[in-house]
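Forwarding the complex inputs:
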Amino acid sequence: MATDRTSLQERLEALKRAETDSGSMLENDKQDFNIDSKMAQAEKTLKKEVRSRERGEGESAEAPSGPVGLDIGTSHIIVAQNERRYIRTTNELNAFFTIPHSKFARNILVKNDVFFFEQDDLYYIVGYSAENFANMFDTDTRRSIKQGLLCSDEKEGLTVIQAIILSLIQKPKRLGEILCFGIPGDPIDGIGSVTYHESIIKMFINRIGFTPISINEGMAVVLSELAEHDYTGIGISIGGGMCNVCLSYLSFPVLTYSIQMGGDYIDSSAGSVVGIPATKVKAIKEKELSLIAKPKDRLTTALHIFYNELIQKLQKSMERVLSASNQIPMISKPIPIVLSGGTAMPEGFTDKFQKSLANVRLPVEISSVHLAEDPLNTTAKGALIMAMTEETPE
Amino acid sequence: MSVQVIIYSSDRIRGGILREILRRNKTETLLLDNIMDVKSAISSHKPDIAIFDTSNSLKNEINSLKHLSSSIEECFVMILGDALIINVFHDGNLWNKLFLTDPLDPEIIISKSREILSRIQENRATVKSSDHDSTTAPVIRNIENMEEKPSVADEDIDLVDHNLDIEHLESDLRQYLKLD
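Prediction (whole assembly, two chains):
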């Protein structure tokens, strides 16, 4: 897990200030110019508008002509690319649904442009199409990633992820183009190997023709949102399967960790108490949940309860992990917290988080809590920024 | 390239932070994570300050750093880390040492580095103007007289431990005079 622990600034400085006495001035100047221009380009990119969209039905992937940012989340896979005037992100749902093999079913799937592949006498319906099928059958989709890491229960999980990634990006125009992808921090309370997850994804990305590098998800949030604070603060990505936390100081990820609790936990817990499939709860939650308004029925009451539980557990973990760490430098000024991820999106979440913060004691003073500009795409954007500052191998 | 500060840290994050804060202070630094490289860098670059961050170091690395720090006379040495580990360094030459215990405090490191570097500059200018030989030792010895700021480290460990320093000088003297 070397790359995610390397800071943007550190790598830039390492290149910029190439600490060697040898080499001609001309070469050093050329290198400095390259790095300066890359940094300038990345900083310019940070200010660009993000244009986000779902992958269209039957739409084929593009071959990227520059660095790529990739967020492989529990619920979505998002690709970010730098366009001339904006950042383009394309997302697909990271879920699947299987139906038995038959000629009739195949014809229906092909006719309706459903995204699927065939394996072991089953049709694997992938992405948003899987959600439609699950709702139709009043059941839940299956996941290739659970609690932020590759799921050991689903043996075709990796094949599903590969299919989704290949539906979003193709082989790059220039072989060895940098692709930076987000990886979780080590879970403090659960099981699962981040090293295995990271290595398997790296191997696959390498096979498509990219040079893979990884970045901690919380750090990607910091890179995307905290440029004005010198990349100092706490970035938290609250996704479907886990919450990722990164305390960054001057762009160095001083402390990273995760808790294996997220939107899926809220959906399944609320669903189980009211007797609705989690997939349906998710759809209702994303469409109409407000944490400011009083709960109007059993489901929203349950959602409020489990949201409160998530916030409390996350903040308690921050208190415990940050207080126990001897890694945190003395930070004289209060630092900001930035929240991102789909689970942080309901109206009132940020206020609730901020108010609840008064119940924990952190070893660093917090100046503000704010929601990322585009919470669903923050990790992919941060990964893109990281990819843009990396030197492409010759 | 003139390197003013050499940093040793086997902790990538802490080393990076140290280099970054010094860079922001317009100080030329070289970050190394290998003690052999530190030894050769000190003799080739002749830095004004060597910062040894003991965090994350192995036992034999701590021993090597201890040995190295006690033999360095060419530059000022800042030793950073846990109070228990730093205690190991409290013997040998102490006149050119500064001990800063965790947590890492970038502001203190910056202010101490500034102080040391400016004092070295002043001494160099004085030595030059009085047309004496500009050997390194007298320059550094003057750092001893630097006005002490309030300690930021543990109460037990002063930034420069003068008691230990005096004890050591006494012991050296006794040995020299064969009084032991």
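The CA atoms of residues 59 and 131 of chain B lie 45 Å apart.
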